[in-house]
Amino acid sequence: MCRLFTVDRLGGYAVVVALSFGLLLSLTACGGDDGGSTVDTVDELSPELAQLSGVELLTRLSMDLRGYRPTVAEIELIEADPGEIEVLIEQFLHSDSFGAQIRSAYSNIYLTRLDYYYISAEDYGLYDEALFAASVGEEPLRILSHIVENDLPYTEVVRGDWTMANEILAEAWELDYPEGESGWQQSTYTDSRPAGGVLSTNSFWWRYMSNTSNANRGRASAIAKTFLCVDYLSKPIEFDRTVNLLDASAVSDALKNNEGCVACHATLDPLASFLWGFYYYDYDSREDVSIYHPEREKLWEEYTDVPPGYFGEPGYTLEDLTRGIAGDSGFIECAVEQAFEIFMGRPSELSDTARMTEHREAFISNGLVLRDLYRSILSDPLYRSQPIDPVDSLTEPNPAQMKMISTDQMASQLEELTGFRFSYYGYDMMTTDSYGLRTLAGGVDGSYVTAPAQNPTSTMILVQERLAQAAANYAVSQALAGYPPAILENIGFFETPTTDRDLFVEQIQMLHLTIFGERVDADGPEVEANIELWEQLLEIDGEISTAWEGLLSVLFRDPDFMVY
Amino acid sequence: MGLFGAASPFGFALGDTDRRLGNNLNFIFVVAYGGWDPTRVFATEFDNPNVDMERDAEGVTLSNLSYVGHENRPNVDKFFESYGDRALILNGVLVPAIAHLNCIRLMLTGTTSNTASDWPALIAANSPNSFALPHLVLDGPSFPGNLGSYVSRTGSSGQLEGLLDGSILELSDQIVSPPSRRAEDLMDRYLERRVSAVAGNAVVQREIDFAQSFAASHTTASALKGLVGVSDFGGGGTFANQIRLAVDSISIGVSRCTTISYTGNDGWDSHSGNNATQSRNFDELFAGLQQLVHRLDTSVGISTPYLSEETVVVVLSEMGRTPQLNDSDGKDHWPYTSMMLLGPGITSNRVVGGFNSYYYGDLIDPSTAEPDPNGISLSASTVGATLLNLADIDHEEFMPGVASVPGILG
Q1: DSSP 8-state class, residue B148
Q2: For B361-374, what is the mean pLDDT?
Q3: Which of A171, A372, A377, B147 is the most buried (most CB within 10 A)?
Q4: CA-to-CA distance for A63 and A65, rounded, in angstroms?
Q5: Which residues of B touch A456 (CB under 8 A)?
């Protein structure tokens, strides 16, 4: 049976949620059965959109799936046979960088990568605060990427009886981290907590703390937003001035009977009641926040008197909650919506409904394997089309947008080209804020900044500049020391435009191909401008290496290097 | 005129139409994130049986201004004694949510939309004058929406300074060095031409938006590097340092709006131990506000002799706290709160709004800002609309249908 879940969940603002696709997906998926309108196929809906060239598509795929641009060999392969793109997609989906890309993309949804938590490394007798915070924030994202990279069913994200941990978390928490191993490993909490995937991790609940008056409602809201794409907080509260909020019984009555309150609380509060086992009396107590508390599971009786329930279905334990989520069509639809938006680089729209329905079917028919969902979206004509000016999304689908690189991609594509990663005493400067550059570079800190910048800012330009200078300096230093990164393999550091112009031009052409995935003409304006700059840089101190370093850093700062 | 005067890359000549007060007002937003308790300073609810006021607190009246005094908060008294005649207290401000993130977004943008730009970004972006860092965020929340190129952060450890002079690279574990200044200037000029070409060739709207934003941000970043040695963007994120840089940035014509934040030692979110937390935080906040106003009083203005004559200070928290203590002697989230404005263009030495017996905000007549049972709620959006009006911006363009409160403008 098809559930029109948006109406069930949020009653009064079904329209708002309908616009975010859940309702439409349900309607279209049910349409055929009811003899109503049939689902249009993707092909029928395809507008006359110009497709990306083979290399343009290759670049988009490489950036989305690996976080860096294609190699020259990959470009040449696609130039020779565009059909090889399907082979490369598989390689990218299994590359070493794929997991990191997934974690990066979903970090903007989970919002767990905080710089600080209430509990510090010192509380556990550990000394590395930054590494501890980074490890905590990474736990839920590692669970997700483990599911993706091992083709586990997506339901594991809320049903798994395991977590992911590194040595730091293993030292702090009660985990059966495998002896003799290092790095991120599949582990299990040994405090007898119920299975619940991300919902049974310390990290997720450290990120979304609660207190007695909030009674886990904020956490329930986080679950709904993260795993069901239902945002309770998107609706400003209409305060009824006739309700006395100072009277506990009046409030309790309003939450159950007042029209303005019930719209959210009728479903939110029962969800919240599942979560008391992770309730902490003392945020600052290492002992309190490190373990699950089965003895607190029924505290809802004391604090809200609202029994646990999943959108009308009564339940008792966290496992009942996760079973409800995993069996909810909204859970699947949300996963599709999130993946679609990540790869399209834009919000999903009404006219995407048919496409998203097809992607959902591909997802379901392949056992809820996320990699199959991604394959389906990556082969969507909209993903493979040239960007256009936005069209009326009610009638026509919009293709994927040109994307600005994320903070993580800013770092990863430079690392891939030059080997340089900006770290300070081992701390990744691009993933932290206290001393690092994450939000200055347009990234998300999970608390004050919850969405990445969509267009350049002045501080982002400055970060890009300094990162580019450092990467260029490092690459040239390595080359001079006899360990040239691939980007400089063709440069001997003795040729000049005067001694061998043809060779020099070839070197610059190769740089453009490597950095931008773009072939430029030997007599084109790009080469001419680059040679002119190179010669001006050489004039400054007479060092060929410095001139190359300068040219390299300018190319790394180019607007084209910040988009794909 | 600012330090650079009209000749600086940040200076601007004031035409006749630009001499209107609103056009030349600067704004400093002071955010107490975590949710303050208005009854500890702003809300004199001593006669309200439903409100737990603090023991030993007392109502203090200075001219037209009344506030809550307590021996543990001497800096609150000092502040109002020195600057109360410039203050406008807004009580009973509705923020229709009770979750921190939603509330702060509502308080600064008037909506829960994650694409809306906040008041400082809108004011900064809609200035007739140009600024290198139109809205400088030293700490605290910022919602730039699509105005990201107008908003810059310094970083909580003064990272902006290291980015500007290149010293940030000295932190790198792998030894690297920036280019010489001469080479860097050369490269900046090259990129300027390149960026201009990209902007000129953009066809699709998304490309145009990106290119224009890149060009504007590149120009700003280049100009900012010229400020090395003139203004110190480093120094860490203490409240005192934030105040110093916020005022300096406006005084030398770099910024029109700045956001600073006072989060207190343990934050403002006093679900337990409300009295101690709020008391200490308010006292330290008001000590900082004294420094801020003093610095504005002694800093050279852009269009007036002193910055305090052309700078509005907006002091806010994203929510209020329940009127009654909970079982942990704490107070939980409450949708009505208070704000304080200081500076030119407002009706100062005044308390507007109030709380009823339920501790809900009183309704007011927007034209006079006086109580009116048939009036409107003083809310985050109505106050925001009024701030835009104060900056000579038609709020209807950004918040259609929202009422402003001209009655609080002077």
Answers
A1: G
A2: 96
A3: A377
A4: 6
A5: 148-149, 210, 213-214, 217-218
